[in-house]
Amino acid sequence: MKTLFFVIALGFSTLMVGQKSEKTSSTVTSMNYEDSTEVENMNLSNLKIDVSMKSLKELKEFEVENLREIFDEMKPDEKIEFSLKYIYPEKVNNVEMTRSFSYKLEGNSNKIDDLITSISEIQKIAIRVASK
User: Fold this and answer.
1) Which of 31, 54, 97, 132 is in the most buried spot, having the most CB atoms within 10 Å?
2) H or E element at residue 49
């Protein structure tokens, strides 16, 4: 009886491990605009951009205007989410810690200029906070 139970359990676990994962999301970790090629008929919808930075230099060098190229490819009246996260080390009472703060914006593709302005303001605020 133990052998039968073991064979059934082994067969069941083999079937479970052998199942194909159906993950449909993907993540772009970096983009280089200089190396990109032209794409015709590209439409973006419900865009979400998450930017994480680990140095003040990266935060200062982030070009917000480069996002305009992406936003301009969107259909009218589409939702846009942008989040900026800054991760930094900090030493408190001789204990090394990692801290972070983040800002999130939600906008619309009909108001790209307002969204770009808001992202620039967030960048300035993040630089001030990170410089302290």
Assistant:
1) 54
2) strand 47-53
How would you class 56 by CB atoms within 10 Å of its CB: exposed for 0-12, middle for 13-18, buried for 19 or more?
Answer: middle
For position 62, what pLDDT does the model report?
Answer: 93
pLDDT (tens digit per residue) in 30-80: 444 454 555 566 666 789 999 999 999 999 999 999 999 888 888 888 999
- Any idea where the domains of the chain sit in the sequence? 42-132
* Alpha-carbon gap, residue 78 to 111, rounded angstroms: 10
Q: How far apart are CA 107 and CA 90, in angstroms?
A: 33
Q: Residue 85's closest CA among 54, 113, 46?
A: 54
